[in-house]
Amino acid sequence: MCGDLAKMGLSWSIFAMPLHHALAMDGGRDWIGSGRVFGRLDLAPGPSDLPTAADVVSALRRSGGHGTPWFDIEGIDQSSILPSCQMPAECDAIGGHDLGEISLHRADERDTGPLAPDVRIGCVSFRKPAGAAVLSAVVELVSVAGPTLAFCDSDLDFVVVSMEDTVDAVAGRWPW
Questions:
Q1: What distance in Å separates the CA atoms of residue 99 and residue 63, rounded to the nearest whole number?
Q2: Could you give the CA distance from residue 39 to residue 105 in angstroms, rounded to a whole number?
Q3: Distance separating alpha carbons of residues 35 and 173, to the nearest angstrom
Q4: Which of the 8 DSSP states describes residue 40?
Q5: Contact 39, 175 (CB under 8 A)
Q6: Is 156 exposed, middle or buried (0-12, 13-18, 19+ CB in 10 A)?
Q7: Of these four, 45, 46, 111, 120, which has the most CB atoms within 10 Å of its CB?
C-alpha cells in the first residue's frame, strides 16, 4: 500500500526501529504478529543499548542516500548531516537514493530541542522516500542498532533486517 500512495503522490513514511526495542514495546509483539513478517523475529537480542543520534547519522551517511533532516544535533551544522537532492524533479524516475524527510525519535519520547549526539534513538522515520534508498539505510542502521524492523505507516508489512543481510539479500522481501 505504501508504494501505491507514493505513485499517487500522497504522503507516506517508512520507519526503522531496533527489533529488540519494537518487541519490548507494550503490545509490540502482538502488533507485529498481526501483519506479514518478512524475516525472523527470533533474531532479536536481549535488552541492549539503542544507537545514539551520532551513530544513526553515521549509518545514514554510509548508506549513500540524500535527504532532508527534520532534526538538529547539538554541535553539528544541519546542512552537513546529509547531502540534499541535486535533482528533485528527476530523482525518483532515475532511481535516486532519496531518503526523503528524515526524523530521529528519541527513545525517551521527549521531543524538546536539538538532540545531544549521545541521546539514544528508538526509531528513525523516512517521509516520502525512495524505497530502495531506505533499504540501503536500514542495512547500514543494523551495524549500529542490531537487527532492525522496518515498516510502513499505512500497511502491516514488517521486514526484519539482520546483521548478515545485504541490500541484495533483502531486496526480494522488501515491499517498498
A1: 10
A2: 24
A3: 14
A4: -
A5: no
A6: middle
A7: 120
Burial of 36 (0-12, 13-18, 19+ CB in 10 A): exposed
Strands 98-106 and 157-161, bridge-based pairing: unpaired
What is the enclosing helix (H) or strand (E) of 55? Answer: helix 53-62
Indicate the burial class of 86 (C-beta count within 10 angstroms; 0-12, 13-18, 19 or more). exposed
Distance, CA of 121 to chain centre: 11
- Nearest CA-CA partner of 69 in 54, 59, 83: 83
pLDDT digits (tens), the chain, 176 positions = 444 544 545 578 999 999 999 999 899 999 998 999 999 888 887 778 999 999 999 999 999 999 999 999 999 888 889 988 887 777 777 777 999 999 999 998 776 789 999 999 999 999 999 999 999 999 999 999 999 999 998 878 999 999 999 999 999 999 99
| Domain ranges, ordered by start, for the chain | 2-171
- Which residue from 168, 174, 152 is spatially nearest to 160, judged by alpha carbons? 174
